[in-house]
Design goal:
3 helices, alpha+beta, 2 strands, globular, two-stranded parallel sheet
Length: about 90
Amino acid sequence: MAALRASLDAVIAFRPNLILVSAGFDAYAQDPLTAMTLETDDFAMLGQWLRATGLPAAAILEGGYSEDLPLLIDAFLTAWEKPPVA
């Protein structure tokens, strides 16, 4: 997550007019084809970060092969759409 945050900060520093996200859900810890470590809450955090930029953005589904894929996408998009409830 630290590397992803640093990458987003670099994108923000560039001051783009639009952010395009390659939404690869194969980074999920339970993905059957990879050995990565992101959890559902991590994808939600990525959505929150994206929303917080205040920049126009779009996401393109790139990968993700777990049966949990719909849940991961929902966590990401829901967090991107609105701020968390306090």
